[in-house]
Design goal:
Length: 326
């Protein structure tokens, strides 16, 4: 019954085939069909021919119905295939807590950015480029700060007293290095056996001046030093006897191994000369000295005048006779 209207030609062929087949079987047609086509009376040969023709028409109509069904089935197949192909090709989106809302993104200042809403969760999200992690302000406090470089870098090295020590507890040598907490001074002093190690001491820094303070035996030693000229160190030492009012003050001149050769020769010539004498030097390393004067004061004046005559500014007396000026 489903095919009475969708294939009219096939249906007509079948209907005609049924009529002819009926003629072939019964030999006549009357009644309702006879009223339409007229009463049919067939002889023996006519009945055989009508039976064959009716069978052919029925088979033809059935064949046409079959071809029509195949065409309809074939037309529906691409749509179904396309539907299946689509469902296999496009992967289902990954499950999220909220398929239409992206999670908030933290920006550099620590505040959450506004969430972005997409029209369809199945639409692929744009890949974000890799960004180096930013240290937030809250985390910066946890990052250890680099220790500040405290103290004059020019102090670092080994410094030797230019005047051979002849007094006990006089500083003979200082080695300055940079430790974890700043500059440290390893000090040796004159003693009966030669040089005695009195340990490593932290230097307190104030401007261009570095100071040590420690107790050695029955003496408290306080030293203040600064680089006066290239590779020339001026050291002021105060010695105290705890529990008493005894106090000694000395000024020393130390040099390191990088001291220019002509300055080393100048120091040597000066120290080898007897009598009242004075040694002047400018911060640039220029030097002048005066020997065999009548007094130490006269020697100082003449040494400074010689600096002025050469146009060397800011000269000062760093050695008076065989000591630093008091």
């Amino acid at each position: 019954m489903d095919h009475l209207a969708d294939a009219p030609i096939a249906n007509i062929l079948i209907l005609a085939g049924v009529i002819f087949l009926a003629v072939g079987i019964f030999g006549r047609i009357g009644g309702f069909i006879g009223s339409i086509f007229g009463n049919i009376e067939a002889g023996k040969n006519s009945r055989v021919l009508a039976g064959v023709l009716g069978s052919v028409l029925i088979l033809g109509g059935a064949w046409m119905h079959q071809q029509s069904d195949k065409s309809a089935s074939h037309a529906a197949t691409p749509t179904e295939s396309a539907t299946n192909a689509t469902s296999k090709t496009i992967p289902a989106p990954a499950a999220t807590t909220d398929s239409k809302t992206t999670p908030p993104v933290t920006v550099n200042d620590g505040a959450p950015a506004k969430a972005k809403v997409t029209a369809d969760a199945s639409v692929p999200k744009k890949t974000q480029p890799d960004v180096a992690p930013t240290v937030l302000s809250a985390d910066r406090e946890k990052v250890p700060a680099k220790p500040a470089a405290v103290g004059d870098e020019r102090l670092i090295g080994t410094w030797t007293n230019v005047i051979p020590p002849h007094q006990v507890t006089t500083v003979a040598r200082i080695q300055i290095t940079r430790g974890a907490s700043g500059l440290e001074a390893h000090i040796w002093v004159k003693c009966s056996s030669g040089e005695c190690d009195v340990g490593i001491h932290h230097l307190q820094v104030s401007g261009n001046t570095s100071t040590y303070d420690f107790v050695n035996g029955d003496r408290r030693l306080v030293g203040s030093m600064n680089v006066y000229a290239p590779n020339v160190l001026l050291l002021s030492v105060d010695s105290y006897e705890p529990g008493t009012s005894n106090h000694w003050h000395h000024n020393r001149v130390l040099a390191n191994s990088n001291l220019a050769g002509k300055i080393q020769v100048a120091f040597s010539q000066y120290l080898d000369s007897p009598g009242q004498k004075a040694f002047a030097m400018s911060p640039s390393g220029r030097c002048s000295w005066h020997l065999k004067s009548n007094t130490a004061e006269e020697a100082s004046q003449k040494a400074l005048q010689n600096c002025q005559n050469h146009g060397w500014p800011d000269c000062r007396i760093i050695l008076l006779n065989d000591e630093g000026p008091q």
